[in-house]
Write a structure and sequence with these properties.
CATH architecture of the largest domain: 3-Layer(aba) Sandwich
Strand content: 15-25%
Structural class: alpha/beta
Distance between the termini: 72 Å
Strand order of the largest sheet: 4-3-2-5-6-9-7
Number of domains: 2
Largest sheet: 7 strands, mixed
Order of helices and strands: EHEHEHEHEHEHHEEEHHHHH
Helix content: 25-40%
């Protein structure tokens, strides 16, 4: 049995065993047990995760892939099964899944060859649930992977870069050509690894921080005093040199400082 790739699900099945092994090896050995693979398809990455980690859960939306995995892996990995919990298949949508409930509040590393059409949303959910996600590794469209890892000063540095790097250390690992997929995508792919920072909370209101970052980059060519005018900045605050900058010129720490200044905006009027 094989599974037909479905365009509406953004499926491109990885066929290169060496690359699958390299992606599995991108997870560190930091003492957490649970690994969640999103979109396993026909399990080319799954089998290397089962060799590497004590407990592997895969989440797949495609019922045909779920049937394939159920038929293939219990037989193939019978020697590795130390308990019934070793390998779990969940048919469902990661974006609608309650991570805390699924893993009983335990830490879980996320990995996968992510569907391009929802890859950014997967990252945003990992950020939202970061207290449960110490590590995140996987394959994206190359330009998205580069954007997540990009530093200030670049045209590709943006919302995804700042919000990810506020809570995770990001490393771009390697590039993957289209030829190792079936069907091949029209672009290169890139594999990145996110390691959660030791301190993954911010010293400012995080909801306000998210709003400031998103509002600033929504008009990225404008200076901040213009793009952030909806925050009703005081005349004095707008004279601060940071408001003469454009968003791609600001580091994550600069955005934290900016959020703090905006939060204190009311008190500075007095």
């Amino acid at each position: 049995m094989s599974v037909r790739a479905k365009k509406h699900l953004g499926q491109h099945f990885l066929t290169d065993e060496n690359i699958a092994r390299k992606i599995a090896d991108s997870l560190t050995e930091n003492g957490y047990d649970n690994v969640l693979e999103i979109g396993p398809g026909m399990g080319v990455l799954t089998k290397y995760l089962l060799e590497k980690k004590p407990k592997v859960t895969v989440m797949e939306l495609d019922s045909e892939s779920v049937t394939y995995l159920q038929e293939t892996f219990p037989l193939e990995h019978i020697k590795l099964n130390t308990s019934a919990e070793k390998f779990t298949i969940i048919e469902g949508d990661f974006l609608k899944q309650d991570l805390q409930a699924t893993f009983s509040g335990k830490q879980v590393a996320i990995i996968g060859n992510f569907p391009y059409n929802i890859s950014s949303q997967i990252v945003f959910k990992a950020i939202e649930k970061r207290e449960f996600v110490p590590e995140f590794s996987g394959m994206f469209q190359k330009e998205v992977a580069q954007r997540i890892a990009e530093k200030k000063g670049s045209k590709t540095y943006g919302i995804l870069s700042v919000l990810t790097q506020a809570f995770f250390d990001v490393e771009y690992l390697f590039t993957v050509p289209p030829t190792v997929f079936n069907p091949p995508p029209k672009v290169d792919s890139g594999v990145i690894r996110l390691i959660r920072k030791e301190n993954y909370t911010l010293p400012v209101d995080e909801t306000l921080f998210f709003r400031v970052v998103k509002t600033a980059f929504n008009q990225r060519r404008k200076m901040l005093r213009s793009s952030l005018k909806s925050f009703n900045l005081s005349v004095t605050l707008k004279e601060d040199p940071i408001f003469a900058m454009r968003p791609e010129q600001l580091s994550v720490q600069d955005f934290v400082d900016l959020t703090s200044k905006i939060a204190n905006n009311g008190t500075e009027n007095h």
